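User: Okay, second chain of the day. Same drill as before: sequence in, structure tokens out.
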Amino acid sequence: MSDPAGRWLARTASDFRADGVAPLAAVATLALHGRAPSDLPGWCDVVDHLSGGSASALDPPAGVPICDLLGPLYELMLADAARRAAGVHFTRPALASGLVALAAGARPADGRTGGTALDAGEVALDPACGAGAFLVAVARHLVATSTDPSDPAAHPPTANEALTRLVGADLDADALVVARAALARWALDEGGHRVGVALNEPALTCCDSLTQPEELVASVGDHAVGLIVGNPPFLAQLRAGTRHDAERRASLASRFGAAVGAYTDTAALFLLAATELISVGGAVCLVQPRSVLAARDARAVRAELVRRTEVCAAWVGDGGFGASVEVWAPVLIRRGARVTEVRVVGGAEAEHEVGRVPADVLRQDSWGALVATAEGLPALRSPTGRSAGRLGEVARFSAGFRDEYYAMLELAKEAPGFDGAAPDEQMADRALPAGYAALVSSGLIDPGVCRWGRKPMRFGKRPWRAPVVALAALDDPDHPGATWARRQLVPKVLVASQTRVIEAAPDGQGRAIGLTPVISGVPDGIDLAHLLAVLCSPVSTLAVVSAMAGSGLGRAGVRVSTSVLADLKLPVHREPWDEAAALLAGRCSLGSGVDPATMQAVRELMLRASGIGNGNEARAGFETLEGPPPAN
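Assistant: Same drill. Structure tokens below.
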């Protein structure tokens, strides 16, 4: 929605609310702007909600179709809490049109009329149609596209014909009133339909597409479903306001089985449901929260989608929903030709290609490579040479939880000798006192360096200069966290939890305890220097970004986990890996650290060791993530 239209909508909604006008009454007033009630078809029940407002008093922005204003106005009229609880975020018309075109263009031409969204006898479905933005977009696409592009005599369907090929469902009966009004206004204003000729009614049903599939099937009737598009509600199960009740959770589990995890977002289940309804060669494109790309509880959904369909394209961009979640949308083709590369498109209207991702990448646990590519990072090519296995086969990764955090807080004290002046780099040579273990937060970890004692940190909501725990305090087996803390006192690598690139620092003597959520990596089959070299590799950072995209705090962040570190591939070429480890071997004590020049040499060696075919691209992508070096 353009800025003038957005400002007009905000002002108009505010005026309606000030006058005590109900949401549907406001929509009805706008729906009748420039039209008489008798112009609208009988099935357009928005007229029933008129409350005496004057449509002529409105002054909508020129050039913006009335049908495109009805959904946004309805959204603005709803209370924020009600909208969040329903997971509702209405879609901009331009984005809906772009995604419809993307999905229609992806349908295979073999055995059908290439270039069209729907074949004869097929319908388009939006299983969570809300105010109808995607249904209007499909209608626009149909009347703008010939039924047979190869036949000059063929013509697009009329608006009335297009309406018969639209099927929609939603739980919100009021939203369906808005959708019917939007489709009626589209047909009258843009579809060239003559007033006085009966408009065909689209098949819109009030039902839950996930737990009442029989209702949806009845609406589709005998037609094949060639296109499924939409923006289903985002109902994250970690949030109290959008969490399912026990009955609905049981219904979803009954239908989708193991695909329903404790925290599976409902939007992902709409993708699974769509693959059950779509015809062979049909396309599915449903907007999703980015968490679906990498979340553990969406893993079963991703695996099933790969089994049932070909992922041939994906849009990654700004949905403009005003929601606190970033979005994307896959294009899935049921039983299409085997895809070798997935097109990644961006832009506010899904209008331009930004890169391609090898399709085999999506057969792994995470689909985060789609976001990484959209952000300008390279998709890692398969290495030349035989894989040496996974990092988890030669190292153990673990992290504490909330209980361990508070157990260490109870025992923490300032290190003797560090309780005077604030810490700084000049204190680097001051040794950790005997009989104590250093407590290290993520903020103290830089690539190759732990800055305990050199940099202040926050712990338990207060600043610390150099926090420690007395080893004697860990001898009490009854103290909560003591046994866990003792197990941390081994040679290891400490990994920060969320940073721009993987930040790992050595603790060669095992004298530090990483505070939750710091991850500890303990070598178990390789030495500490070889483990540190893998974690410092640019390839490892890019692999983690691809695996975890959508689960971090921001687009530029790397949010690591124990499982994603364990899944990192070991280098295929041993000689440069050994050289990198040799450079690090004398710099693995807690207080020493790796200087920038050595770290750069290690990274170059590890690029060679990885065996990937696009090392220059990987280097550039890593440098983009890392950003400029800090000013002196």
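The longest helix spans residues 173-189.

User: Thanks, on to the next one.
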